[in-house]
Design goal:
single chain; alpha+beta; Butyryl-CoA Dehydrogenase, subunit A, domain 2; six-stranded mixed beta sheet; three-stranded antiparallel beta sheet; about 15% strand; binds flavin-adenine dinucleotide
Length: about 675
Amino acid sequence: MAQESSINTASRRTRILNNHLVQYPSKPTSCLQSNSCLSYTPPESTESFGFDIKEMRKIVDFHNLEDRDWLFGVIKQGRVFNGKERGGRLFVSPDYNQTMEQQREMTMKRIEYLLERGAFDGWLTKKGVEAELKKLSLLEVIQIFDHSLSVKIGVHFFLWGGAIQFMGTKRHHDKWLRDTETYAMKGCFSMTELGHGSNVRGIETVTTYDSKTGEFVINTPCESAQKYWIGGAANHATHTIVFSQLKINGVNEGVHAFIAQIRDVNGNILPNICIADCGHKTGLNGVDNGRIWFDNLRIPRENLLNLVADVSPDGQYLSAIKDPDQRFAAFLAPLTSGRVTIATSAIYSSKIGLAIAIRYALSRRAFSMTPNGPEVLLLDYPSHQRRLLPLLAKSYAMSFGGNYLKMLYVNRTPESAKTLHVVSSAFKAIFTWHNMRTLQECREACGGQGLKTENRVGHMKGEFDVQSTFEGDNNVLMQQVSKALLSEYVAAKKKNKPFKGLGLEHMNGPVPVIQPNLTSTTLRSSQFQMNAHCLRERDLLNRFAAEISLYQSNGESKERAFILSYQLAEDLGRAFSDRAILQTFLDTESNVSAGPLKNVLGLLRSMYALICLEEDAAFLRYGYLSTDNAAAVRKEVTKLCRELRPHALALVSSLGIPDAFLSPIAFNWIDANSWSSAQQ
Ligand SMILES: Cc1cc2nc3c(=O)[nH]c(=O)nc-3n(C[C@H](O)[C@H](O)[C@H](O)COP(=O)(O)OP(=O)(O)OC[C@H]3O[C@@H](n4cnc5c(N)ncnc54)[C@H](O)[C@@H]3O)c2cc1C
């Protein structure tokens, strides 16, 4: 309780706020009435926008705008979404001041609310491109509100539900999909173990088959085999997908997936199963991550997800794919959805950060440039522009990359499986790294205000950090990208055939030449920009292949040669991603007719292309750019910052994030911090 002071207690009022007794005087002190105080001026009038922000939003959000707006409205209206008025505006945001247990329960309450309003209708029972796009758009909206909520929903629908849909067959679909969609049961996904995360093939859980009873028997043979980090396992999940080695007649047939019930309808843990909590995390505490041990758990034979392999009632292992490597790849192929949703979610998160930081920078002033002159808006400092506007251009570029990835995913065919695997791995890594970097820059750009949880930016760093680790560690994913590019290279050279696929067709043409003295006009031409990106990718792929080959000719195994060439592999993975993203930007731009919108897209595209050139040391290291040209690139980026500055508000207003999902410092932060506001 607050200490009694000498101030007349009668002049104080008291109230309970967050369980603390708060005391404050009944009227403001004189300084609050002084004329010398700053007054808030809104950034700019919406009439000054140089392009149509509604049209831009259509390009950026790309699909299901009405569905998105419907769900934003549903969330704004729901009491469980913790709406609060600040500075005369409504903001919705989870209460991160709650305990871990309370946050987990609120996550479930929010799911129930959304379920009652039909938000998940058709998520697993409707098929086709439209249904899939709608589902992706609604998950993006949910994530804009809270990452825990979207992860909890994502685990249930995309991991548990997705495994049944894509690794199972009709018997599993008939039995589980409808109940999953209605939450009659709650699913989780047990792949990771204490001892093995990225290396899924190394997991130690063992499943055998008992032909006398027609059951599989699942065991956790040692502590390192305990399932770890399983989202939903600690409190709520009733069922799980268990990834395990399958041993049939003493032969290990490799990793397979099984359905197991872990709790009864009342939430009691079933016999032969032990569950413990992973505990408090640096973020994402609305998700109940748990650990699971299996002790001779028996499940029916039919619970093997048998799209790729099966076991007959008398215990024979059956699979059309004989090669264990190919079988393992076929098992995991359907799980791409996680990478797709994480990639696009990361970009929405960076957009929230940028919308808040840029709006704040358009109303916050600091220092003056002349003695006794007015203080200067943060975004009028060239340094502040340089910190935020290239990140904004990258977020736009990655939005277009994300849209391409989603279309690739919803229209997937066996022929596009490789491209989908490579692009989703590359974009998941690049977008999530970009998001963390953006949030940190935005946090700092907001100064101390960036550290207030209600202002979102700082807090989101902890909430989204995990994206670089789960659903494929970013570094491991980037290795896979380079490996895939290398195998394309080796195949093309071996067969002496042109490159086809993964956007590598540029390797068939002549080597692009970068002229010695780059002018502003050249730097802004899409042809130069694409040439520079292709040159880097092409050269790095050649170098990578040559280095691997050299290691191998010196007696190293293929695997070790790859590990030793990790630096080129990393550079190549980034070069592939940047070039692929630039291509999606150009494709997007080509669908826009000439006018102010296309002009500003051109500025953003040039900024994206040039900042990639400036940030990757490979351009200087391998001499794709001379030092003079590198200096010209840097100068052009500064010019682009100046040219984008007048569009900054319009650009962040086109990102498809309603005001209620931003934060008080994005608007009238003086009113939001007024004395009267503190008393509400
Ligand atoms: C909040 C949270 C929720 C999760 N939810 C789930 C879930 O619901 N279900 C589930 O099954 N799992 C879940 N996971 C687990 C997640 O998928 C794993 O953490 C992830 O796969 C990484 O595994 P790991 O933690 O064992 O790290 P490791 O694989 O041990 O990696 C540690 C480090 O080593 C590096 N490294 C690994 N291999 C190589 C290599 N070959 N070369 C160079 N460097 C390498 C990595 O880059 C990384 O930096 C979750 C994790 C978290 C944190």
